[in-house]
Amino acid sequence: MRDAGALFDLRGRVACVTGASSGLGQRTADVLADAGARVVGVARRAEALNDWVERIGPPAAAVAADLSDRAALDQIAQRISAPFGPPDIIVHAAGINTRETADEVTPEGWDITMNLNLAAPFFLTQALVPAMRAKGWGRVVNFASLQTTRAFPGGVAYGATKAGVAQLTRAMAEAWSCDGINANAIGPGFFPTELTGPVFADPERAARNAAQTCVGRNGALEDIDGPLLFLCSEASAYVTGQVLMVDGGYTAK
Q: What sections of the protein cross the membrane (predicted)?
């Protein structure tokens, strides 16, 4: 019988977390560092990233970059690998929701949403896969959403990308799991982050969302810890191509 603690031990692993400057991305980076990984946080806001590195200490490094710039992703991948070597784990938490209604969607809003939410997770992972393949071990965790399967107002572009993330995750698993690289996705419900700020700013709307769950409340940041650690560790060795909804049962009702 294997030691249960060893299943979730990330000592010796290198992780990359996009969107690490705030919200669930930063929470992810904290959890992986606490589990023993050396973590490279990636986001546009250098000051926020540097504050995070200062708080975590030597196991952390920062790469300030715009992941919506597809032409820069290969170079960004090289910068990610510089502090600790190529990552064994990559978590794609960076995202944008322009909240443009169907009649108001602009080409600019559409393109940045597609590039950041869907293209960046694929092309950045593609650039990092060779090193994972050489080790015979890797973990890719994408961020899905309630809008992976549900339509929300003002969510045309965002919902399209998050539905795409589910199929991208399955396709990644089909392509790379034979090399020891498992690909899964987390689908958060309503958590208090910058992205969901407009939701929580409306107490009645927040209460309605809480009532829609099976557990009767919206998410707290710590609710994401266990599922993420599971998907990033040896504990998920036989789990790949899955979307794990961490939503308090919102999508079950």
A: none
